[in-house]
Task: inverse folding
């Protein structure tokens, strides 16, 4: 979520007229670029969710998007609920708007959802992305990140799968002025759509509280939430949004629709979905495949639909699987190299052993824009079945396996009991009964650390808050 305005010194009443005069309707080229980028973004953010919650997000998103002037038809907007635990939202030209289930679960009413989506549409209406990438289309931005690492070696297939780096360029990098402009436009859209415009400042406060909570639990200094990474999210920004809402004359008067939002998030998965694999400490577990491996410290993990990417500055690995033929792992390794493209030929195939799992591996040299790379493929066939799994590693030439030796040697089989015992965390909405307090619900939270603080932030409650019988609250439980 991101927002801002060049006319920050003007009153809100003047801002919309000036902003709307500059809005360009969705062009054919924007529609084409958006349609090309949409599948890639959906894939990199865990896939598109389906069902009542997704339908609800689409209805709210379309309602708020038409306030932008980009189109008068709700059908021109594609609003997607992404199956990702990351707190994120963004929009791209062509009428495409996105929010993750992680961010949705933090919200407490429909107006807050509308504020997030309105903010993102505001970025598009103000053409902030076009100003940031004057000559690049969305798909070129995605390809450019891949090319920076892999060059013309054909390794783009590897780096693009699951890396999510191109999406970062789409969803981050707005200036402070642009953030404020999108804030202002989002407040305007809330007001004209009949929502309480104070929802924008409320949502900013929720995000700030969530990040402070996460920072405190992790024992680190507070930084900006991933939803607003590199963007201002200070108390001053909250106050600024409150002032813009007051200037509309509708602060506190519009629709909030708390029950509709709570109905939508009830039963939503919280955090990583074990069915897709999840990170527990430094170990990444895939219960459905009964596999687990340890990620080196300092490396980021991105879990996309078709690959898990482990990356740090100067090196990257990608984990995925595929069918194995009659030729066994040696042929499988050759197939993986072929799928990566380029003219690189692997060297001798050798054997190794992880934590009780044998593997085969080979290296090749590839060219990139940043110089030559060592490319490794490490293949496993843990149960002698028809499926094999593999890492592809990228390091600077001469490094070979580099920092990934502990990674490839850590592959292990999960026991059947361990795999079956993994259950997802889910959001559960409950009604407060007489005599129940925040401490009552904190004891239900499926977290050993800071359960009360987690409950308060999840429900946008202050410490010492009193609950009212019949009030609906969210808790996170083990399903």
Result:
């Amino acid at each position: 979520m991101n927002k801002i305005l060049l006319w920050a010194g003007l009153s809100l009443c003047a801002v919309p007229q000036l902003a709307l005069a500059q809005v360009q309707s969705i062009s054919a080229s924007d529609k084409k670029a958006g349609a090309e980028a949409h599948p890639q973004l959906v894939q990199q953010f865990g896939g598109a969710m389906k069902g009542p919650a997704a339908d609800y997000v689409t209805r709210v998103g379309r309602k708020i998007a038409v306030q932008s002037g980009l189109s008068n038809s709700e059908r021109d907007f594609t609003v997607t609920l992404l199956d990702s635990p990351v707190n994120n939202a963004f929009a791209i030209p062509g009428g495409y708007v996105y929010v993750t289930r992680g961010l949705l679960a933090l919200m407490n009413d429909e107006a807050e959802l509308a504020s997030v989506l309105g903010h993102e549409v505001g970025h598009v209406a103000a053409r902030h992305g076009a100003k940031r990438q004057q000559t690049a289309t969305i798909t070129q931005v995605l390809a450019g990140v891949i090319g920076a690492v892999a060059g013309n070696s054909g390794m783009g297939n590897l780096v693009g799968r699951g890396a999510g780096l191109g999406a970062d360029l789409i969803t981050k990098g707005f200036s402070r002025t642009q953030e404020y402009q999108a804030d202002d436009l989002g407040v305007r859209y809330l007001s004209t759509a009949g929502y309480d415009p104070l929802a924008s400042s409320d949502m900013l406060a929720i995000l700030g509280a969530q990040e402070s909570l996460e920072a405190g639990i992790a024992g680190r200094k507070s930084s900006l939430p991933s939803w607003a990474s590199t963007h201002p999210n200070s108390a001053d920004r909250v106050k600024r949004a409150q002032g813009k809402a007051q200037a509309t004359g509708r602060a506190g008067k519009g629709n909030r629709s708390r029950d509709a939002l709570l109905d939508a998030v009830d039963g939503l998965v919280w955090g990583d979905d074990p069915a897709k694999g999840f990170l527990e400490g430094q170990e990444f577990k895939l219960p459905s495949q009964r596999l687990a491996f340890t990620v080196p410290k300092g490396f980021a993990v991105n879990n996309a639909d078709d690959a898990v990417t482990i990356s740090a500055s100067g090196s990257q690995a990608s984990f995925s699987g595929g069918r194995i033929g009659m030729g066994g792992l040696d042929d499988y390794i050759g197939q993986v190299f072929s799928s990566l493209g380029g003219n690189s030929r692997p060297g001798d195939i050798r054997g190794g052993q992880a934590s009780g799992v044998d593997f085969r591996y080979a290296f090749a040299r590839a060219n990139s824009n940043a110089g030559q790379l060592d490319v490794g493929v490490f293949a496993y066939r843990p149960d002698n079945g028809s499926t094999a799994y593999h890492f592809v590693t990228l390091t600077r030439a001469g490094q070979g396996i580099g920092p990934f030796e502990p990674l490839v040697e850590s592959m292990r089989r999960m026991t059947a009991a361990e795999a079956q015992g993994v259950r997802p965390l889910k959001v559960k909405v409950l009604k407060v009964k007489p005599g129940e307090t925040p401490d009552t619900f904190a004891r239900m939270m499926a977290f050993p650390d800071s359960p009360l603080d987690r409950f308060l932030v999840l429900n946008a409650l202050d410490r010492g808050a009193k609950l009212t019988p019949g009030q609906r609250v969210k808790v996170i439980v083990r399903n």
